Amino acid sequence: MVRQDRAIRTRKLILENMAILFNEVGYDAATIAALVERTGLTRGALYFHFASKEDMARAVLDEAVTREGLSPQAFKLQEWVDLGLLLAHRLPREPILRAAVRLAVDPKARRLFGTRWPDWVAVGDELLSEAKVNGELLAHADPAAVSRAVVGAWTGVQLVTEVLEEKLDLSQEIAGLYQLLLPSIVTPVVLAKLDLSPYRAERLLLRENGGEQAPDHE
Amino acid sequence: MVRQDRAIRTRKLILENMAILFNEVGYDAATIAALVERTGLTRGALYFHFASKEDMARAVLDEAVTREGLSPQAFKLQEWVDLGLLLAHRLPREPILRAAVRLAVDPKARRLFGTRWPDWVAVGDELLSEAKVNGELLAHADPAAVSRAVVGAWTGVQLVTEVLEEKLDLSQEIAGLYQLLLPSIVTPVVLAKLDLSPYRAERLLLRENGGEQAPDHE
């Protein structure tokens, strides 16, 4: 059991360091040699966990569509927003999630492994369709089109936020995006009841991890 | 004069073909050898126009912040929307514009050349600030934050649109994005007078190029 735990930790360590390399130099220039140097592990240890660089890229993308921290809410729309806020909170802290976006916008990696955008669009479409059935959405709002627009907008806001010189916080920027978009698709009554705070994700994750005192930013 | 025209056309041909290579294989893997093969030009001819691959990447980025087709409108907000619609119309038709986005999301190219996102954010901020002074925006709308969100959202919608399997039209997707965002920032009176049609850019460009019959899609 202890041995298995260690194996899981080592696998995660390898994947995180490869993700950092993907982020820093891109898919093509990231090498096993650089990974050996970063981790101090032997090639044998690396190949015990992953067959190849391609295998690591696939593992990065497999971790990209995550619902960690998500819990059932009174409004399906809140769950849909929570997905985006949770990812915005986690991405600056988790190189593997950043690398998944990086691989999606890299022409070679994209050709080899595809992207997880269609999966994200499907997840959003499903939640928004339920919200629509529940009467949370305005009549003209098209769940598939909105989900598509928001997966794109979320991705681009992340990419631009990390480049702009100002010290921008991704959670703030993504919360601002939802605040811009939601009035066009949600009924006013539901809108007034949604929590679009940039600190919401942190609270959700603390609650899930059994933290007793959620930080109070407001 | 004829000679100069030919030089301008050759320069454009080189830049377009290098842009196609950047789009297909990424900055790092794009080579002068592949460019020679694509264009049929000699290395001497290429180096007459550009000193290096780096020089071509810079030239691609220099063409990225473009106001082609833009003309003064009754509302500054219409000009701001027109910028985004014009770019959405042109990008699928112009490899150089696509390559500018591609270089911006490539870690190595970004480190070497930066991106034009700060310039786009500044252009949007300026137009939105004028719109605010003119009373076109709602009181709470922050020009800098909205400009940042829309530069990000625009970029991401473009990246995701070209990946999704469905035959999506970028002009339609970007028009949809503005239709989602604008009700949160514009006064209802101005909103009713804006043209957010996906066919608007085509009409603006035809008018500029002296076309007499604009296509009528509606």
Automatic annotation (TrEMBL), chains A, B:
Keywords, comma-separated and alphabetical: DNA-binding, Transcription, Transcription regulation
Annotated DNA-binding residue span(s): 31-50
Gene3D superfamilies associated with the record: Tetracycline Repressor, domain 2 (1.10.357.10)
UniProt domain HTH tetR-type: residue ranges: 8-68
UniProt cross-references to InterPro entries, sorted A to Z: ArpA-like, DNA-bd_HTH_TetR-type_CS, Homeodomain-like_sf, HTH_TetR, Tet_transcr_reg_TetR-rel_C_sf
Keyword DNA-binding found: yes
Keyword field contains Signal: no
Pfam families listed in its UniProt record: TetR_N
Example of a GO MF term: DNA binding
Domain of life of the organism encoding this protein: Bacteria
Protein name per its UniProtKB record: TetR/AcrR family transcriptional regulator
Organism: Streptomyces dangxiongensis
